[in-house]
Amino acid sequence: MKRQRVLLSLFVAIVVLATGSCSSDQSPTGVTAVAPSDQAPSNSLLGDLLRPVGLLQCTPMAAAKTTKTIGPEGGAIQIGPHVLWIPAGALAKPVTITATAPSDDVNSVQFSPSGLTFDKSAWLTMSYSNCNLLGRLLPKRIAYTSDDLRSVLYYLLSLDNLFSKQVTGKVDHFSRYAVSW
What we know:
Elements: H1 2-21, E1 31-32, E2 64-70, E3 75-79, E4 82-86, E5 95-101, E6 108-112, E7 117-127, H2 133-137, E8 141-145, E9 151-155, E10 158-161, E11 166-173, E12 176-180
């Protein structure tokens, strides 16, 4: 048991050192993607498990698209394994919302109408059960990204549940969001 703790501590230390040495001087709100030719070699400690912008690498899921009208009473929208929870009072009038989760190697959701803001924060719960094992060990959060997923604009206030393999983040407006480490 003690040996397992020592090995786990050593593994965590290696991961922290490896990811820390790959960081840039930019703040989390200014992270940009690295051109494929500039990526770390695939034989590095972490290999291709992590994307340059910090988005979690996953096995593609089936694409999902949902359209639902939500009013002042609030409601939930299921998009494949992801759920958007809108509380009562978040919207002043009924709004038709479309949510799309594409089949990709990153778990992301695009919401429209783009730019819709809430009077009370909504909560987005995203699954990462289809993501690599190392990614499951690192703390996750939800990132607000550019439409092409090439840059993280900022990170949402997020809570990671390792047991359910889901991360929940506070959403104040619509755009594109993705699971990040």
